[in-house]
TrEMBL record, chain A:
PANTHER family the UniProt entry points to: 40S RIBOSOMAL PROTEIN S15A
Phylogenetic classification of the source organism: Eukaryota, Fungi, Dikarya, Ascomycota, Pezizomycotina
GO biological process terms on file: translation
SUPFAM superfamilies: Ribosomal protein S8
Source taxon at top rank: Eukaryota
Family the entry assigns: Belongs to the universal ribosomal protein uS8 family.
Keyword set includes Ribonucleoprotein: yes
Keywords from the named record: Ribonucleoprotein, Ribosomal protein
GO cellular component terms listed in the entry, alphabetical order: ribonucleoprotein complex; ribosome
Keyword Ribonucleoprotein: yes
Record-given protein name: Ribosomal protein S8
From TrEMBL, chain B:
Main subcellular localisation: mitochondrion
Pfam families listed in its UniProt record: Ribosomal_S5 (PF00333), Ribosomal_S5_C (PF03719)
Protein name: Small ribosomal subunit protein uS5m
A GO molecular-function descriptor: structural constituent of ribosome
Gene Ontology CC entries for this record: mitochondrial small ribosomal subunit
Cellular compartment(s): Mitochondrion
Length: 224, 411
């Protein structure tokens, strides 16, 4: 049966269940009404499965390219899509000292702080633009880039895991990588100051931090 | 080599410091061991009469320790003053011969010396350094004024004998004090620095040679034949001395003919690419072309010397991390290596590393192997190394060499 109802989440008058592909909705048609509402939301919002949501690596390579291009052009700010994965990676980069600032902004760059020169959320004058339901989709992360002696501090960023092939690194392998030896398909860290960022169940960390905390994880990006 | 030859080194040369300070006899640096069991020089002393130390000790009695005879006392009076002789006799009287006989022993403890030595002379390596005492320092010493120096000279001229010789003048100059203060502060100053192992003139193999005096005219005699305009300009431009340039490692790596077709015909020139390095972190490359091959080689070498730049080295033996270089179709990468690895690379890169003072390196030339471009790409790679200090400054983070700090250089 086709049930049309108002949904508080997708602001839609209703979604025709028949519009949802059958392979994802065969289970839903048999469910009672209460669960139908929930399941409708999950299919509408997440699109595919009822599995636990995961951070998508689809845009990771694009982020690396964007930052590399911005570095080559010696830009002060670079914008990347605003997702949890990207935000966490940027926080890890900032803690390593490779980038100077991360600010959530719109399609255009946020105004720089008068004294600091880069945008910051504690700017009383300009202030942080509040994120609302109307503008959340257009939000982007604006990354402040660093340069030293005419060279970018964030050298070259390369992605390691792809959406199709996710490369996890165990702790013993990570120790080898830190010593400069190759492990599996992940090359060792051979340059001075080379960094490798991993997503672990204890958060997003640099390879050396992971070894300190004795955890392995999903290898995301390498910075040269 | 015999140990009988006395080697007088610093203290026998006519140095000012020595004449004032008391002579401390030093043992020579002979490598041959002391021949202790030699037959006595005196033929009247037979081997059967000579006793070993153990035998002497066994047979020792208190009566063996007798006071000095009159003959011995007269011999002593030749050497020592009456006051000294009185002191010696008082010292001898204070000790009981019975104690001397009992306590005379050949040491057998683990800390005994394994050689016979009376410790009257100072061995350069094994004994404590001979240092001027701290009391020799005078912190209130100051240089003499011009007036005071003039007074000294005036005094010399007043007291000059009738027929003064150069020797008198030399003696005056040698004894001239340049500071007002303690004499020891000027002539034998106390220093916190450890004295050199080899004083001027000393060596392990040779007998002490006389100290070479600084001759300013010595260097000017040789290069009068070789000094060309180009070399003069190089010395002026770089500021190096001829000795420095002679000590540089120069090598022509690439040398071939190149032809330029003009309306007058083919002009054949020689092209040379050379490297110059001091073996301790400096490396430069220079190229030149000339119709004469010798001229091209010389010019390229001089250009290499002018273009010398410092190259970063980790522990003065290898590079920091892996680096890549690309010139033309040549793509290569240089890889850092552990100590003792050696230079496992192409002959061109090997020569460059030797000139630069890099001892451990691995290299892989990936694409083309054109010699000229290989040299240039390798140079580019060596110059593109990242300095951890700069990285730390750029990131605002501390970078620690774990190999040194945590593993004490053993990894």
């Amino acid at each position: 049966a086709i049930v049309i109802h108002k949904c508080t989440f997708c602001f839609a008058d209703g979604i025709e269940r028949s519009a949802v592909p059958l392979k994802f909705s065969t289970g839903l048609l048999q469910r009672p009404y209460a669960l139908e509402r929930l399941s409708h939301i999950t299919t509408a919002v997440l699109g595919h499965s009822l599995l636990i949501p995961d951070m998508s690596l689809v845009n990771l390579a694009h982020v690396c390219s964007s930052l590399n291009n911005a570095n080559k052009a010696r830009l002060a700010l670079a914008s990347i899509p605003h997702t949890k994965l990207h935000l966490n990676i940027c926080i890890a980069l900032q803690q390593s000292g490779l980038i100077s600032s991360i600010v959530r902004g719109g399609p255009t760059a946020p105004a720089p702080h008068l004294l600091l020169g880069h945008p910051t959320i504690v700017d009383e004058e300009a202030g942080a633009e509040p994120v609302t339901q109307s503008n959340v989709a257009s939000r982007r992360l604006w990354v402040g880039l660093k340069y030293w002696q005419s060279e970018p501090v964030l050298g070259t960023m390369t992605s390691i895991s792809t959406p199709k092939r996710k490369i996890s690194v165990k702790l013993p392998d990570l120790r080898n990588i830190l010593q400069g030896r190759r492990s599996g398909s992940v090359d060792g860290l051979r340059s001075p100051g080379e960094c490798l960022y991993l997503k672990t169940d204890r958060g997003f960390m640099e390879a050396r931090e992971c070894v300190e905390k004795k955890v392995g994880g999903l290898a995301l990006v390498r910075v040269n | 080599m015999s140990i009988a030859r006395p080697a007088r080194c610093l203290f026998c040369t006519l140095s000012r410091a020595a004449t004032s300070s008391h002579r401390i006899p030093r043992r020579p640096f002979h490598s041959s061991p002391a021949q202790l069991n030699r037959k006595a020089d005196d033929p009247s002393v037979k081997a059967s009469d000579m006793k070993t130390l153990q035998e002497i000790r066994k047979d020792l009695k208190p009566s063996d320790f007798k006071p000095y005879t009159e003959e011995e006392k007269s011999r002593l009076s030749e050497e020592y003053s009456p006051a000294q002789i009185a002191a010696i006799e008082a010292g001898e009287a204070a000790i009981d011969p019975k104690d001397m006989a009992e306590q005379f022993a050949v040491r057998r403890d683990p800390m005994k010396f394994h050689y016979l030595d009376d410790f009257s002379t100072i061995e350069p390596v094994v004994d404590k350094h001979i240092r001027a005492p701290a009391s020799n320092s005078d912190y209130n010493a100051r240089l003499k004024d011009e007036d005071e120096l003039m007074d000294d000279f005036a005094r010399y001229f007043r007291e000059m004998p009738e027929n003064a010789t150069a020797a008198d003048w030399v003696r005056f100059v040698e004894s001239l004090r340049l500071t007002i203060g303690k004499e020891e502060n000027e002539l034998n100053p106390s220093s916190a620095l450890v004295p050199d192992l080899f004083e001027p003139g000393e060596s392990l193999s040779k007998d002490p040679q006389p100290v070479e005096s600084l001759k300013t005219t010595h260097g000017q005699e040789k290069p009068s034949e070789e000094m060309t305009d180009a070399l003069k300009k190089l010395l002026q431009a770089t500021g190096y001395t001829l000795d420095t340039i002679r000590s540089l490692k120069l090598k022509t790596l690439v040398s071939h003919a190149v032809v330029n077709q003009t309306r007058l015909g083919k002009i054949r020139r020689q092209y040379c690419l050379s490297i110059a390095g001091n073996g301790n972190g400096l490396l430069g490359i220079g190229e030149a072309k000339s119709e004469e091959s010798s001229d091209a080689m010389t010019q390229s070498r001089y250009r290499a010397i002018r273009n010398m730049h410092p190259i970063l080295r980790y522990e003065n033996r290898t590079i920091f991390g892996d680096v890549r270089g690309k010139v033309g179709a040549v793509e290569l990468k240089l890889m850092t290596c552990p100590p003792g690895f050696g230079l496992r690379c192409q002959h061109l890169i090997y020569e460059m590393c030797r000139a630069a003072g890099i001892h451990d390196l691995a290299a892989r030339v990936e694409r083309s192997r054109n010699p000229m471009n290989t040299v240039k790409a390798a140079y580019e790679a060596l110059m593109s190394q990242k300095d951890p200090e700069e990285i730390a400054r750029a990131r605002g983070k501390k970078l620690v060499d774990v190999r040194k700090v945590y593993y004490a250089g053993r990894v």
